[in-house]
Amino acid sequence: MTTIFFLVYLAHLFSSIGACPLGCECDVSLIVTCTKLNLTDVPDDIPTDTKELYLDVNFITILKNDSFSNLHGLTLLAIRFNQIHTIESGAFNNLTKLSHLYLDNNYISQLSEDVFFPLLVINTVSLEYNNISTLWKFSSVSPLATLNLRYNKISFIESCTFVGLTNLKVLQLDRNNVSTIEDRALEGLAHLQNLYLQHNALISLPDSLFSCCTVIQLLDFSHNKIEELPDLTFLWNLTLLDSSHNDILYIDENAFTAQSRLQTLELQNNLLNSVPVLHSVVSLTTLDLERNRISYVPDDAFHNKSNFRDLRLGYNLMKRIPEAVKGLTLQTLRLNGNPIVRVEANAFEGLNNLHRLQLDRMALIHLDENAFLDLKQNQEPLSLFLNDNQLQSLPGEIFSDLNIDIINLEDNLWSCDCAMCEYSHWLSNHNEIEKFDVTCVQPDQYLDIMLSEIHDTDDLICELPVIVESSNYIEAVEGDSVMFPCNATGLPLPFIYWQTPHGHKISLETDMDDIMLLSNGTLILHNAAFSDCGIYSCVAINEAGEDVFNTTLLVVFDTINTTQQQTVPVTSQGTSNA
Question: Which range marks the domain in which residue 492 is found?
């Protein structure tokens, strides 16, 4: 009896295979593939017991009412990369078991509201890369879990558009041209977990937009023009928020009070001047604040975050390593691209889990010999990036006992002079010379020579700084900006700072509104006042010594607007101590 049933099954199976449409492939799993056959219509001889049907890459233009009338068992239908522009309202009438429908890369511009009504168990509908500009009301497609509308031409989402999608979990509206979303647009989506709105034209999101979607875990509205974060009060289940590449200037201190479960926060490429308050975000693992305008980080900005792993603060306006990074559980710390000129001792205290440290593309001119002292206790290998800075020398033992896997020291201003003697000695005794070696940029006789190739350290000499460009006397009109030039030679190239008549030391790290030092040694004073008159001293210093030059500033009234010129006399002359 068993043999008879088996023979009957085989007869049925092979009969189905035998009925395979011309050019198509039909396998024993009841999968029919009719791709790249130049079809202009759905074949009418598809086996009736087909489970999955693939009609991709053809020239089908219309899905008719009877296109699938005999395919009652179909669970997956894919008609991608065709030229479909019309779907008749009854095209899917008999597909009561269809769970996955893929109509990507066609020319569909609109659909009737009831087109998906017969799909009783539909799980996924994908319509990306079509010409849809106006959304219809999804009033009766309650089983749908994933709706993909990416890469269309949608510009407006009105209230209650998705009210019938009561089981929807994933909604993809990214890469359209959405500029307006009404406040009740997401009504009915009580089970929505992932919402994608990136790469649109949004300027704002309604504050009440998410009041009906409290289980959202992933929210992405990156690459828009949003100026202010929407109200996140109802999104207490949020684990990932991507609001990068917008125009956000300010974030309210209470913006994240409900986000205790938030793990990943992406705010890079905005206009932020400060780090948002994140005290309630205790589950945070990844924070990206790169490419903003942040100049200061509060010391307690990242406290109470035991799972914090990845902090990205690159390409901001910070001039110092933030104290806030000390003691964190970070594995990755990115500070690259900030105008930081020096790394002080114990700058990375307590970073016992650090695997990757990026200090590249900054303005570094000095590393303290104990800059990485606290990282020498770490068991995991460290990837350290110091490339593309202005470093001229390295302390002799700076990398000693560091467990370094990768180090990049390229594209600095390495000066093979007396300041590198101790490092040269350490390098010659290290078993991985190539990893820690540097290419000399100065002096000229060692250009492009590796430091390890200079065997006699007596050849590593230094030269005293000499200021070669400056001004003895400068006269400026009240309210003008004043430039004090100061250029110096020496080996290694001297570090330049200025002393003002009021006793202030102005260096590259100085953060003042009215006075600043450029990397070429020029001092700029904005909005000159009579109180600024006096002697300004340029100091050029390196390992061999220093040189000083004094410049006298005299501020006068604007003679165009004032009938009587007044000056504040200063009796001093420039001096050089070379």
Answer: 463-556
| The pLDDT of residue 35 is above 90 | yes
483 inside domain: yes
Closest listed residue to residue 33, CA positions, set 12, 15, 56, 60: 56
CA 575 – CA 548 distance, rounded (Å): 7
Backbone phi and psi for residue 439, each to the nearest 5 degrees, phi listed first: -100, 125
Q: Does residue 321 form part of some domain?
A: no
Q: Exposed/middle/buried for 326, CB within 10 Å: 0-12, 13-18, 19+?
A: middle
Q: How far is CA 226 from CA 234, 258, 270, 273, in A?
A: 19, 21, 9, 16
Mean pLDDT across the stretch 547-570?
A: 71
> What is the C-alpha separation between 33 and 515, in angstroms, rounded?
72
CATH label of the domain that carries residue 516: 2.60.40.10
Count of structural domains, the chain: 2
pLDDT in tens, 124-180: 999 999 999 999 888 777 899 999 999 999 999 999 999 989 999 999 999 999 999
Domain boundary among 100, 115, 131: 131
Summarize the confidence of residues 504-529 as an average pLDDT.
Answer: 93
Q: Is 392 inside any structural domain? A: no
- Cα–Cα distance, 207 to 20 (Å, whole number): 55
